[in-house]
Amino acid sequence: MKAKGRSAARTAAWLGAIGSSVALVAMGSVAPAWASAHARTPQSATAGTAFPTGPVTLTLATEDTSKLTPALIAGFEKLHPNVKIVQQTTSYTDYLPKINLELASSTPPDLSEVVTLETAVKDHLLLNLDPYAAQYGWTKSISPYALDEYRMGSNLVAGNGPLYAVSSGFDLTGIFYNKTLMQKLGISGPPQTLADLNADLAKAKAAGYTGLELAAEDGHGAFLVQQVADDYSSPAPVNNWIFGVKGSNINIPAVRTGANQLATWAKDGYINADASADALTQAVSEFNAGKALFINDGNWDTWEYQGGLKSAVGFAAFPAAQPGGRYTAMVGGTAGYAISAKTKYPQVAAAFLNYSVSAAVAPAVFAQGNLPNSLSGITAAPGSLNAEYIKAWGEIVKSDGLYGYFANAFPTANTAWTQQTEELIGGKTTAQAALSTVQAGWAQAHG
Amino acid sequence: MSTVLAGQETVAATGSATAVTQPGRRRRLSRKWRRALVAYAFLLLPVGFYAVFMILPWIQTIVLSFYNWDGIGTKTGAGFSNFVHVFSDPQLRVAVVHAFELMLYFCVIPIVSALFLTALITGPRRPHWTFTRAVLFLPQVLPAVAVAVIWQWMYGENGFINQALRWVGLGRVAQPWLASFTWAFPAVGLVGSWITLGLCLAFFIAGAQRIPIELYEAIATDGGGRLRQFRWVTLPHLRGEIVIAATVTAISAMSAFDIVFVMTGGGPGVASIVPGLLIYQLAFTAFNVGQASALAVVLSLLVLLVITVLRLAGRERS
Fold this sequence. Notes:
Strand content of chain B: under 5%
Oligomer: heterodimer
CATH class of the largest domain in chain B: Mainly Alpha
CATH superfamily of the largest domain in chain B: MetI-like
Shape of chain A: globular
Number of helices of chain A: 20
Shape of chain B: flat
């Protein structure tokens, strides 16, 4: 009886074992249950359709956790009391895997934030907004740089082709600094050149502080590589690479300089020791706790810094390569929204987009720490982060220093950059090898 | 008595002449069929679930591995190209080596530790250790993601482990464990050991409780100590349970995903990358369902290979 019992238990274990292994392979096959394969023709909007007067409910999917999107929705609902927009917010990590599947489902969100366009454009999930751009005059009121990011042709190269989204304003990267700590270390102001920055980092280290707080686990190692690289490269080669233009290569001297600089900062102990296990939220709270002199981040974290360091936080454009050099920044649309190809109310969704890019909402957009599409008539309190954003923006535009993000170059770019920059920080690879690996990923995606 | 009654009821219900003329034969057939029907009825639900949620997706995964597909649009035939890509991916080699290394943490360490604990509570005297057993089994019933988040904090620069090291004067050793190329992988592995220890212990204690106490007394009478009792009584009797524990934990090691995804995301670099994570990245970041399926098929074959080896190794010699 005992032997029989044991044998039965063993059989059960084998069944369980096979079951578990099957469950594992099933991971790769969940997608078919969610979405069926359809080959559809591209959809384009019919502009000028009458705005409905009856109750309308739209859903809006986003990964934007700031107060910007709710503010835009509230403003639009006030303007159109018959319209209700339901915001569905998902974390960035979860948003990417699910949004295209949701758009392909029978109940897609009417409006959705664009993070990557390739799959959605390839599978005709989004509405071509060119007719609305003409109707509302977006091509005149919004800079071509801001629109190019959301254009994509059938060759899946960004920068040209139909428009699929618009954004209420810009993200802007640079360095946030701790004014109190700066004073304590005898530093008179934010660094103007990379040499100034290195001198400040050495002072911070000598006093027992982290020079640059870095969230490499969340891909911000690529931010530092790019900030330095952009100082040494004109925008065209970098932006072409990000847009997926055939024949582009990221393994160029300017980017190798950036990669080498990151490795040197890590070797010199200027960045936090836990960078490769540091998420952005953690890095922000360490900086807010006064443990680090600088953090390279974007204006999307305005509220975090203002809430943490209050008036002790400052912002400046990333230092130039040499005195009198160019100021550069990664600049992209803040939560750019697209319209589902299957929406029942394209005209309402387009009206929302038009409201979100209009001059009327510019003060509200700016109040959230984002730069609106037009800065005319915008004022900021002296010494505030917003005032420093405007100052930095002016310097960057004057230098022709607007760049997209390395992490947006292909669907797995963020993973590739995260891995390679962590290897650079750990001294496990060279700039040449790291960039070759990233380029191999790009080539696989863009051919 | 009940058999007779059951037979009579059947006859009455059917009213069959055959049943009346050949009551014995009819009764046997009827009982046989009824028992078979009951057995199939019980089996229907689990087998149905197993087919719909396990076997069909498995077959679908194998089919998808021969296509190029982004999970939404049109599928195009890919031949064996997805498999060629999988085998030429340098990350896969690292990930598979890690999967086997994880077996040390998910399988070997917990089994050896659980055997040691079992040895302490078997023998002529058998303490119950209910509380200890419950505490050790607890990680099994906690959601893996919650467990991973807690351990992530504990391994942090100012987490519990570094604080404890500083308290005992080992501050020099303290470091951000999950950011270290040397320590991130063992740190994640040890969380796996912590999770599976309780499961192994539950298997072994259940097995050990069936061992007749007289066997231990016999060895004690012959002058044998605890070590001999363990070697000659406990260990041979737990052979089956050890094989089962090894199988279940080896599968957990090979298919590890959740704790790695949450704690390190496979980093720093690819220092803790595992096949499960690569499958996820291929399917849900790269939207390359074909390659993800090909890798899943390769991994499932590896899992089957491992459990077959374990089964052969654990087979009792007749």
